[in-house]
Design brief:
Strand order of the largest sheet: 1-3-2-4-5-12-11-10-7-8
InterPro entries: ChyE-like, Class_I_gatase-like, GATASE
Structural class: alpha/beta
Distance between the termini: 39 Å
CATH topology: Rossmann fold
Organism: Rhodomicrobium vannielii (strain ATCC 17100 / DSM 162 / LMG 4299 / NCIMB 10020 / ATH 3.1.1)
Pfam families: GATase
CATH class: Alpha Beta
Number of domains: 1
Protein name: Glutamine amidotransferase class-I
Order of helices and strands: EHEHEEHHEHEEEEEEEHHH
GO molecular function: transferase activity
Shape: globular
Number of strands: 12
CATH architecture: 3-Layer(aba) Sandwich
Number of helices: 8
Helix content: 25-40%
């Protein structure tokens, strides 16, 4: 069953309530973290759907401000029906011109929907922890020096997509397609509580090549977490402008072309 999480700010803020954001998640315990906090602060309720567990996805995003597909432990290449349906469904926000954001698995699904490839690291590395990021665009800043990762696979870019940032382990870290569809390989939603949960539940995976030890995830969050949060707030503000005014690309995002 889907969840509708409403903004619970002041009465004045509630009066400015806007269209909800459709949020797709892939684990029962998953939460939208810092991204959800920014959206709620802007007056958007979150309609959380988990298709993996039977939640339907709408045939149209009419009545929604946009959609976000988050990450998960599965692969965009998995043969499961719900994976294929989600990838196909991303065509809805793309065809309707609604703002779309894919995070980690969601970015890989977006890339695959656009005809790009999703594949593992050639050396079998798990990119897990805080790694450097190299912006190709400065208007979406202030970029942090490091962002948080947890993934075995990355994606190529189709011809019409624009790379916004690159990484050392997986080259493509952020991209834009069209007017307002974005994919982020890293996790802008991460919080310290989420890091503790992921490193406990995924402790066995941290033995894979390339993965950082759990204590480094926590220590590096103290150094880099605040700057990632500042970038996330700036990026989501610009993304929401495209939700509020879809007739033109917000200036912050337009200059990223």
């Amino acid at each position: 069953m889907s969840e509708l999480l409403s903004f619970t700010g002041s009465p004045a803020s509630a009066q400015r309530s806007k269209e909800p954001i459709l949020v797709v998640m892939h684990r029962r315990e998953s939460q939208p973290g810092a991204v959800g906090q920014v959206l709620r602060a802007h007056g958007h309720a979150l309609d959380i759907r988990r298709p993996r567990f039977g939640d339907p996805l709408p045939a149209s995003l009419d009545g929604y401000a946009g959609a976000i597909v988050f990450g998960g432990p599965m692969s965009a290449n998995d043969p499961d029906d719900y994976i294929r349906r989600e990838i196909d469904w991303i065509g809805v926000p793309l065809s309707e011109g609604k703002p779309f954001l894919g995070i980690c698995l969601g970015a890989q699904m977006l890339a695959k929907q656009l005809g790009a490839e999703v594949r593992p690291h050639p050396a079998g590395h798990l990119e897990a922890g805080w790694e450097p990021i190299h912006p190709h665009d400065q208007t979406l800043g202030p970029w942090p020096s490091h962002v948080y990762h947890w993934h075995f696979e990355g994606f190529s870019l189709c011809r019409d997509s624009v790379r916004l940032a690159a990484g050392d382990v997986f080259e493509n870290q952020a991209f834009r397609h069209g007017r307002n569809a974005f994919g982020l390989q890293f996790h802008p939603e991460i919080t310290l509580a989420m890091i503790h949960g992921w490193t406990v539940r995924g402790a066995a995976k941290l033995a894979h090549p390339g993965a950082q030890k759990a204590h480094r995830h926590v220590e590096s969050h103290a150094m880099h977490g605040a700057r990632l949060r500042a970038w996330t707030t700036h990026f989501m503000d610009a993304w929401l402008k495209s939700a509020d005014r879809r007739d033109a690309v917000p200036e912050d995002l337009q200059r990223a072309a």
